[in-house]
């Protein structure tokens, strides 16, 4: 047996100290625990909550973005035990490092793409994701088959304790629907104020909630009074309901017995099932309520009780009430003859923004004059000058290349990139060109008093550069908002079919890392009001790298409280789907190419609808079928003709924005041949209901801008921009007035 020997000059205690230090580091990393997303489920390219449990405080979460570049998310405050941090994974199983300053505390990886029903996994874009607070009602078994060893086709996250739910609305980014029923009462009662606010903001910001309100509804509202407030129920009351309406709705052959349910409000929603009580009094059994930009589908029954659990048509009832969310998507749902690598509208949006005109263009007449000058120089002029005047024909072998090279240099010099983006400098040709193309969509709901905004920006740089990017709001947006609650900026796009990219390698070591700073309590730079609310969450990007002749796409999410709350709405004609009364432009700016949309009718406004302008009678405006207008459908003598959607086109940002805003209204993937997954929250087709109308238009100037700077000086990035705004107005009937 060999003896243990130490190198010369190294004592036993030195070796013991080094060994203890190494073992201590391993023990600290082993004691650090990280929980990804909600029950281990997350989406690539979406904000993901990361719950940290450990002894050392964490200040930064380091991962990779969709381009494989290292990005560091500096949290608004240090993360302690069971505290939530937020970052955006740019790919499947990307690394995650927890850091305190420059010290790396622990390193993990996001879960790989697998079966969400078996544990933590990345959820593909085509798979629907549902978070359940209570009984999953059989949703977690859709598509599952034990004999065929086939897993469920819908991702269901069912947290068992409140600590598993995020404390910010960012943690619900990518969730398609949430289900709450009586089995989740204890979980609802244990939610913190931050967790409850996060769910409420997710619903009003565009989320979809499926709520069962049966015999236990009074106890449910006691545990979560904010749900009662969202549904505008003053005094909840239960009653005994006859099941015949549910049986007729599902065409079931299995009868039900009478059950207890709550009296749902008849106003403010679209009734899906109208039934009767045991005393033969009409009552809504199921209804769809628009809550801000989201909606709540409520049914007056406890679908988790024994009677409905044994009923074979329970899942069919839920599917008919919620739409396509509970229907697994097929892989061949999109057009098979597409000429594009992407299969989603978000990919077409990014391709549209990634078009930059940085070269000086010449018309056909100029090109003709240049060719004629070249022919004249190497023809008659060369012959007269070289042969006749100088009498040396051999010089023609030298004059011809000299003239050609000189003309090429002149054309190259005139066609070089132009830049007037450095503050204080004139607009002269330069090589350090920075361009920025943007599309922004601002939504305001005057009934719920909520506002949101989405901006997609694509920045191009001719030379390699490090940029700092911040969000600034314009004077117009300042006049529209009382306070900014969130202004978040993040990378836009990731490898996959949605954006038409493939992931070859996760890491890109050639590009330097950059930082996204999450700040709490400060508002974007505002020239009008310097006061900032304490609950404002903003981000800024520091040192984002752009390689030579490359681009970077960024997305901005806004949430604000508008000043247009409780604005007077429109009036509906009795017994029809047409509007009447006057329309006033509530914005401080002119609306260009606007229209007022109610259900399937579009009232075309004048080309310029001035600020504060008034239309005395809206029924005098020209009316068109809204779905026909979206699809550019025209009526012929004996048929109709629809303009086919070109998925490969990148020249019409206004058309892409229209599809993003009302994709389902025009037919969805059946018309465009593209899915609408990453940006599905922008689709307000469900808001076109009986009690709401939408005022849509274009704004001449941007409502938000990107402040782009380098270490030396600020940059004014020129480019194309499109700003759309939508205002949701209430619609009442004459009898209600």
What does this entry look like structurally?
The protein is α+β, with helices and mostly antiparallel strands and 737 residues long. Among the domains are: 128-322, Rossmann fold; 364-415, no CATH class; 570-689, no CATH class. Helix content is 20%, strand content 32%. It is built from 16 helices and 41 strands.
Tags for this model:
alpha+beta, disordered N terminus, globular, 20% helix, 737 residues, Rossmann fold, 21-stranded mixed sheet, 7-stranded mixed sheet
Average pLDDT, all residues = 85
Task: Indicate the CATH architecture of the domain at 128-322.
Answer: 3-Layer(aba) Sandwich
CATH topology of the domain at 128-322: Rossmann fold
Output the CATH homologous superfamily of the domain at 128-322: Class I glutamine amidotransferase (GATase) domain
Helix content: 10-25%
Assembly level: single chain
The total count of strands amounts to 41
Provide the low-confidence segments as ranges.
Answer: 1-29, 332-337, 420-431, 522-534
Q: What Rg do the Cα atoms give?
A: 31 Å
> What gap, in angstroms, lies between the N and C termini?
99 Å
Structural class: alpha+beta
At the first level of CATH, the class of the domain at 128-322 is Alpha Beta
Largest sheet: 21 strands, mixed
Shape: globular
| Strand percent estimate | 25-35%
Number of helices: 16
């Amino acid at each position: 047996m060999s003896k243990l020997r130490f190198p010369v000059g190294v004592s036993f205690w030195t070796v013991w100290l080094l060994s203890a230090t190494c073992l201590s580091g391993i023990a600290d990393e082993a004691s650090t625990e990280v929980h990804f997303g909600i029950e281990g489920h997350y989406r690539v390219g979406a904000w993901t909550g990361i719950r940290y449990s450990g002894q050392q405080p964490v200040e930064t979460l380091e991962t990779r973005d969709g381009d494989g570049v290292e990005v560091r998310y500096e949290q608004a405050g240090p993360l302690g035990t069971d505290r939530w941090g937020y970052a955006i994974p740019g790919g499947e199983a990307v690394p995650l490092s927890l850091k305190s300053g420059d010290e790396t505390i622990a390193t993990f990886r996001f879960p790989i793409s697998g079966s969400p029903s078996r544990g933590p996994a990345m959820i593909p874009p085509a798979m629907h994701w549902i978070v359940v607070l209570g009984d999953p009602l059989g949703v977690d078994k859709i598509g599952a088959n034990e004999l065929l060893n086939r897993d469920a086709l819908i991702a269901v996250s069912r947290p068992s304790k409140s600590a598993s739910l995020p404390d910010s609305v960012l943690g619900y980014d990518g969730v398609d629907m949430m289900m709450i029923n009586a089995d989740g009462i204890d979980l609802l009662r244990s939610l913190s104020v931050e967790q409850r606010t996060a769910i409420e903001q997710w619903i009003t910001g565009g989320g979809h909630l499926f709520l069962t309100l049966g015999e236990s509804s009074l106890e449910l509202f006691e545990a979560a009074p904010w749900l009662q407030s969202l549904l505008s129920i003053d005094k909840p009351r239960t009653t005994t309901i006859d099941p015949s309406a549910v049986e007729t709705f599902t065409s079931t052959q299995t009868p039900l017995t009478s059950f207890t349910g709550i009296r749902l409000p008849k106003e403010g929603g679209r009734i899906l099932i109208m039934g009767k009580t045991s005393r033969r009094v009409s009552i809504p059994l199921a209804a769809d309520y628009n809550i801000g930009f989201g909606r709540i589908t409520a049914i007056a029954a406890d679908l988790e009780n024994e009677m409905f659990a044994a009923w074979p048509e329970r899942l069919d009832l839920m599917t008919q009430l919620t739409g396509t969310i509970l229907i697994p998507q097929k892989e061949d749902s999109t057009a098979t003859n597409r000429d594009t690598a992407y299969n989603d509208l978000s990919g077409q949006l990014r391709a549209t923004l990634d078009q930059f005109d940085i070269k000086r263009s010449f018309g056909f007449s100029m090109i003709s004059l240049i060719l004629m000058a070249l022919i004249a120089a190497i023809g008659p002029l060369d012959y007269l000058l070289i042969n006749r005047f100088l009498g040396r024909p051999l010089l023609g072998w030298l004059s011809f290349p000299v003239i050609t090279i000189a003309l090429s240099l002149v054309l190259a010099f005139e066609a070089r990139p132009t830049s007037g983006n450095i503050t204080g400098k004139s607009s002269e040709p330069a090589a350090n060109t920075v361009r920025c193309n943007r599309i922004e969509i601002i939504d305001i709901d005057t009934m719920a008093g909520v506002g949101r905004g989405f901006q997609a920006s694509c920045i191009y740089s001719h030379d390699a550069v490090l940029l700092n990017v911040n969000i600034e709001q314009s004077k117009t947006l300042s006049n529209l908002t009382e306070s900014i609650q969130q202004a978040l900026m993040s990378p836009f796009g990731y490898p996959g079919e949605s954006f038409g990219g493939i992931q070859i390698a996760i890491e890109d070591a050639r590009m330097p890392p950059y930082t996204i700073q999450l700040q709490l309590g400060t508002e974007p730079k505002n020239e009008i009001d310097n006061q900032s609310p304490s609950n404002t969450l903003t981000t800024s990007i520091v040192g984002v790298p752009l390689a030579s002749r490359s681009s970077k796409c960024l997305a901005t999410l806004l949430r604000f409280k508008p000043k247009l709350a409780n604005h007077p709405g429109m009036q509906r004609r009795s017994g029809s789907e047409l509007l009447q009364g006057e329309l006033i432009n509530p914005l401080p700016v002119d609306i260009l190419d606007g229209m007022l949309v109610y259900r399937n009718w579009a009232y075309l406004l004048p080309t310029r609808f001035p600020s504060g302008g008034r239309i005395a009678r809206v029924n005098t405006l020209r009316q068109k079928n809204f779905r026909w207008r979206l699809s550019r459908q025209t009526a012929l003598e004996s048929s109709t003709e629809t303009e086919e959607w070109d998925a490969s086109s990148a020249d019409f940002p206004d058309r892409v924005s229209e599809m993003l805003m009302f994709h389902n209204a025009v037919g969805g993937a059946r018309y465009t041949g593209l899915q609408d997954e990453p940006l599905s929250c922008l689709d307000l087709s469900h808001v076109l209901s009986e009690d709401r109308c939408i005022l849509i238009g274009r704004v001449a100037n941007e409502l938000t801008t990107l402040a782009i700077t380098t270490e030396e000086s600020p940059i004014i990035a020129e480019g194309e921009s499109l700003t759309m705004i939508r205002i949701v107005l209430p619609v009442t009937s004459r009898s209600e007035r």
